[in-house]
Amino acid sequence: MSEDFKKRITVAQADYTKSFIQNVFLQRTIFFLVFLILWQILSSLGIYPKFLLPSPIEVLETMFFGFIESDYLFAILESFRRVLLGYILAVFVGIFCGLAIARYKILDNTIGASLTALQSIPSVAWVPLALLWFGISEAAVLFIVVLEAFIPSALGVRTGVHTIPKEIIRAAQALGARSIDLYIRVIFPSIIPQLISSLRLSWAFAWRALIAGELFVNGVGIGQKLELGRSLADMSQVMSMIIIIAILGYVTDDLFFRTIEKKVQKIWGFNK
Amino acid sequence: MTILFEDVSLQFNSKNIFVVKNINLEIKDAEFVCLLGPSGCGKSSLLSMLAGFNSASSGRILVNNQLVKRPDLNRTLVFQEYALFPWLNVIQNVAFGLKNIIENRDERYLIASRYLKMVGLLSHARDKISELSGGMKQRVAIARALAVKPELLLMDEPFGALDEKTRLDMQNLLIEIWQDLKPSVVFVTHSIDEALLLADRIIVMDKNSKDPTVIGEIKADIKITEPRPRTLSDLVEIREKISSIL
User: How many domains does chain A have?
Assistant: First the structure.
């Protein structure tokens, strides 16, 4: 074997190892496996009582029976319905609000400035207020969701409108697009990439606010299941719910929003 | 289309600084005029007043004896950065301005495709904007601006972002189209050679050195009668004359 050939084989092997390590799916799988194994070991060592640290297998069991024999699926669907309702409301309010503050300087100076302050309030802080105003009801949860989720949309729309290149607007105006026509045919489509990112953020906020709200409100939902788990000292249910929240969050964000976002960025021509 | 600047001044944010002051200028029908000068001497400001985006602080601008008040389909623009609409494909971009003139969509597309053919992009009618090169984008922008049959085409350093070769191609294409359709053209550039190759008339602008309250002024108004296509070697004298001014 020539030196050159040996060298090439070494390089090929190194490349293979590299691509193996760089395979994202593999990285994640190994990470979670290691995590589960450590968890299993820690739990079976018996340092912590079972009701504080169930093993991953027990949690999986709870989840499995929760779906086939209890109402986990119903709870998830209920939560989804609630968050979707709040989210849609929030997005409408947010887009309208964003367009208004982008258009009128005085609104930006007043409402626009307060939005940033409002955004710094965690959703849990609104719970007492919502409960007093709306009672222990779904309306209270919706209130919190809308209040949290409309802000990223509003701020995103404002930024989107402000960053439309002046030439785009001018070209459109010279070609006869005015007032409403200009909004529908140019301003709105121009902000879509920014809007998608904001909608994604709004969704994350809505989801957080929903769980915060549901913890305090009667009915069926993921938040209520969490709270029920706590009051029954059923840690495996608590953990099941946390895992379900994480999975749902990942699926909607990464698979749904990220996919749309990438597609839009490609069409609009700013894919990185 | 005849254009008349009568004592036009543009003030800078209400302060006592003028971008340009007391500009008088007459541009004849079908004339190709270049506004030539370095950055920040008021070329683009004149253009944007003419388009109707900024109003003059004093004086008036008349287009076909009508006061310019706001943008109009009769005066369309081509920008350096193309300003195409990325959510629309090529032919939809070109047909954009026709929406308010022609009801029928097929008819709009028919007209748009005529202009696409003129700029040599008919085979790219359904392409996404993000798939085009810089030169192709600028062709689309020119087709879009022309499709509404403007009498005046306003071009703000349209070829400034293109490489040398593409730039030459585009200049030739523009002259061809202009000779065919004969709109008036006001073309802003800072390249002497570009102005020499294109214009019937070069308005040379520069920073004002005498009056500290005025930023830019017109230094010279030079007619070029040399027939097209031109080569720069035919224009050495004029070139030197302009170089000595700037």
Answer: 2
**Rounded to the nearest 5°, which phi and psi values hold at B70?**
-155, 170
Residue (of B241, B211, B243, B199) closest to B22 by Cα position: B211
pLDDT by position in tens, chain B (length 246): 899 999 999 998 767 889 999 999 999 999 999 999 998 899 999 999 999 999 999 999 999 999 999 999 999 999 999 999 999 999 999 999 999 899 999 999 999 999 999 999 999 999 999 999 999 999 999 999 999 999 999 999 999 999 999 999 999 999 999 999 999 999 999 999 999 999 999 999 999 888 888 999 999 999 999 888 888 888 888 999 999 988
Q: Give the domain extent around A75.
A: 58-267
CB contact (8 A) between residue B85 and residue A175: no
The gap from C-alpha B96 to its chain's centroid, in whole angstroms, comes to 19
**Which CATH code fits B3-74+151-245?**
3.40.50.300
Residue A208 in domain = yes
Residue limits of CATH 3.40.50.300 in chain B: 3-74+151-245
Contact with chain A for residue B127, Cβ under 8 A? no
Q: Chain B within 8 Å of A269 (Cβ-Cβ)?
A: yes
